[in-house]
Amino acid sequence: MTQRGRVPVVVVMGVSGSGKSTVGRLLADRLGVPFAEADDLHPAANRAKMAAGRPLDDRDRMPWLHALADWLRQAEASGGGVMACSALKRHYRDLFRRAAPDVWFLSLVLDEETADRRVAGRKGHFMPARLVGSQYRALEPLEPGEPGRTLDATAEPHALADEAAAALRPAPG
Known about the structure:
With 173 residues, this protein is an alpha/beta fold. The protein has a single domain (20-166), classed as Rossmann fold (3-Layer(aba) Sandwich), CATH 3.40.50. 45% of the residues lie in helices and 13% in strands. Strands 2-3-1-4-5 form a five-stranded parallel sheet, sandwiched between helices. Helix 1 packs across helix 7 (157-168) and helix 3 runs parallel beside helix 4. The longest helix is centred in the middle third of the chain and has 20 residues, at 58-77. It is globular, with a radius of gyration of 15 Å. The two termini are 14 Å apart.
């Protein structure tokens, strides 16, 4: 919870295959707030580009990031929410913080080989495993001063959601 005692808006971030969606849904359930999958808000052109094995650039991402920022703003105004989103770069997260000042980031980290294996094992997703490396090249980890926590994405998803929920609870006293 934030200092004001409200459930914050949480962005569960990381590369493809880190478990953002799974952990995000679990965390939203624990917090009793809505969940959003950022991939669902990608324009068709972005999905097609990734499905063709071409990584997105910032120009591709900007309309999508603004749509996500709008969702975060609305979630913060209505009592909280959890979104699964790669949020790879600091300036993306800065955009989110401008939209929803109380946003908190849960960064799920894992090695590239594990991410490759997880993504290759998914069925019916537009993101091919061959693009995982481009996400690692773009990834800017949470920096000091960014509100949130970094956790090992190889841990069990329920344990990750529990740890995140505990971190969001106000300190006693």
